[in-house]
From TrEMBL:
Domain FAD-binding FR-type: 110-235
Listed InterPro entries: FAD-bd_FR_type (IPR017927), FNR_nucleotide-bd (IPR039261), Riboflavin_synthase-like_b-brl (IPR017938), SIP_FAD-bd (IPR013113), SIP_fam (IPR039374), SIP_rossman_dom (IPR007037)
Pfam families given in the database record: FAD_binding_9, SIP
Superkingdom in the source lineage: Bacteria
Originating species: Thalassospira profundimaris
This protein's name: FAD-binding FR-type domain-containing protein
Entry GO MF terms: oxidoreductase activity
Family: Belongs to the SIP oxidoreductase family.
Amino acid sequence: MTSTELHATTQVRVPDPAAAMDLLCDFYREHDCDVQQNGEITVIAAGPGTFRLGTGDQKLGITVAAPTDTGVSQLQTNIITLIDRMVPGADVNCRWQGAGRGRAANGKLPNFRELTVGNVTDLGPDMRRLRLHGDDLSPYRAGSGIHVRLLVPPQGETMPQWPGLGENGMLVWPTGENRVEQRTYTIRRINVDEGWMDIDFVLHGDNGPASRFAGHAAPGQLVGVTGPIGNDLPDADWYLFAADETGIPAVCHYLEALPTDKTGQVIFEVSGPGAKIDIPAHPGFETVWVFRDGTSAGGSAGHGQSGRANRADFATAVCDVALPDDGRRIFCWTASEQAVHRQLQQHFRKECGLGRDQCLVMTFWRAEGQDG
Ligand SMILES: Cc1cc2nc3c(=O)[nH]c(=O)nc-3n(C[C@H](O)[C@H](O)[C@H](O)COP(=O)(O)OP(=O)(O)OC[C@H]3O[C@@H](n4cnc5c(N)ncnc54)[C@H](O)[C@@H]3O)c2cc1C
């Protein structure tokens, strides 16, 4: 933790602090975070900052650190929600000292904005772009993290009840039938001056609240947003970007932002040739499209199939890429379904021996019926 970071601390009562620590460390390792255990102190690098965890008499001491108040608040929510979900007998009715006070001031989620659907544009059979309009989108401007948490109201709800933040950092969800659902999406493009952001949704049917919302979206509908989340793309000379449809918006965002002297390879997986979408041209990148056996990830052919299509070709194509070994700085970025993610993580971390500063291998969604 550096002196320029903001900090907040709390203590959570748990029956077995050592067991709680093990559960948390396992979780963050599984999510590819750096976990350093040094005696009774554990430091975990996660998202916008770090957690410092220590064990005491039936308690976990927690310090979160991040460069911004929003980052501190996000980490508070992250760790307390996780403890509540994973640690048996934990008493998460705690209070925080230090930064993250935006939470206490108004009980709203960090940078919460209510957005209104404007233009609805089909990019292909499986993807739809919604232009979302809102006031003061400056916290989401380029360079602040390209992902957001969308708060999606039930179909047809015109007066959504948005969640708030409790003193312990956990979300407080309104009860009742107009409860919203939270899902993670990517800002494909944003114009703060004009007050809009574009989000590209994979249409995989009415089986999930976000896909259903996008599939039936009409101008004037409301959706909430909080964030932003995610770190900057590290500087490198050569990049590999590999993603199924869910990661295409992020890769397009990066391709538009990268200087023209950067080079690399892009691999996209979509349902078939008809599902290709227009992507930004970058002179240093070659793009390969991999098709899934004619089975759609969504759209008309795939509704209700939960993306069980064969994704082996994509994983093979990614693993076959020859990474430069001529001294250029490389960075590999992948976004995929969870089972594919495991293969790619094994490949890049174990077989290629890349460190966290050289690759980010992410799960963007989980197909129903997959283990784990
Ligand atoms: C950092 C990050 C950024 C993301 N950015 C985007 C983005 O810009 N655009 C985007 O479309 N997605 C994006 N995703 C993925 C998105 O959050 C998930 O697909 C999410 O599960 C969709 O929520 P839902 O409510 O539609 O479905 P859920 O309620 O989560 O799931 C309902 C059913 O749909 C299935 N399902 C979920 N996603 C898919 C899919 N892609 N294809 C087929 N079946 C699916 C599930 O297996 C489940 O059976 C991102 C994820 C992360 C972590």
